[in-house]
């Protein structure tokens, strides 16, 4: 049986856009929410060693961790991890606060103001969103 390529924690993924590429780092691959990964936008450029950081602040997104190679996305490096990665995984899922794959507690009003909801984007939607960021919109 053919096994589809799968992203893993620490991978850097190149996503081709119109006139450039977006580079995103895999912050978390969920085991609880099947086939879903969290990415952090590193920036834009033609090659991963020439990345121009995004001026729009830290961008964290969720999408599928399998099947992305069909869209022309590719893993360009591995093991790009950071000590604060675990803190980036806090999010709200169905009125609950999660960190990585651990349910922390029922989300309070303060939690919902402090942490983002886990919204899983499809590949095409994410590409369009990244293109808008690259264009400065």
Summarize this entry quickly.
The chain is an alpha+beta fold and 137 residues long. The chain is built from 3 helices and 8 strands, in the order E-E-E-E-E-H-E-E-E-H-H.
Largest sheet: 5 strands, antiparallel
Q: Which residues form runs of ≥5 with pLDDT under 50?
A: none
Q: Helical element count?
A: 3
The helix fraction, in percent, is 10-25%
H/E series: EEEEEHEEEHH
* Strand numbers in spatial order across the main sheet: 4-3-2-1-5
The end-to-end span amounts to 43 Å
What does this structure look like?
- The structure is a single chain.
- The protein is an alpha+beta fold.
- 16% of the residues lie in helices and 33% in strands.
- It has three helices and eight strands, in the order βββββαβββαα.
- The strands form two sheets. A five-stranded antiparallel beta sheet has the order 4-3-2-1-5. Strands 6-7-8 form a three-stranded antiparallel beta sheet.
- The N and C termini lie far apart (43 Å).
Characteristic key phrases:
137 residues, alpha+beta, three-stranded antiparallel sheet
Topology:
Layout: E1 12-16, E2 21-29, E3 36-45, E4 60-64, E5 74-77, H1 85-88, E6 91-93, E7 96-99, E8 102-106, H2 109-114, H3 123-134
């Amino acid at each position: 049986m053919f096994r589809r390529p799968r992203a893993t924690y620490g991978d850097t993924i190149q996503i081709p856009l119109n006139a450039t590429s977006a580079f995103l780092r895999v912050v978390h691959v969920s085991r609880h929410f099947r086939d879903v990964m969290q990415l952090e936008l590193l920036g834009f450029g033609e090659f991963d060693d020439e990345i121009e950081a995004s001026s729009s602040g830290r961008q964290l997104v969720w999408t599928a961790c399998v099947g992305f190679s069909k869209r022309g996305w590719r893993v360009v490096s591995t093991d790009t991890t950071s000590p604060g990665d675990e803190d980036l995984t806090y999010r709200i899922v169905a009125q609950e606060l999660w960190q990585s794959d651990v349910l922390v507690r029922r989300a309070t009003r303060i939690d919902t103001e402090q942490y983002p909801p886990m919204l899983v984007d499809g590949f095409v939607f994410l590409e369009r969103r990244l293109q808008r960021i690259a264009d400065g919109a």
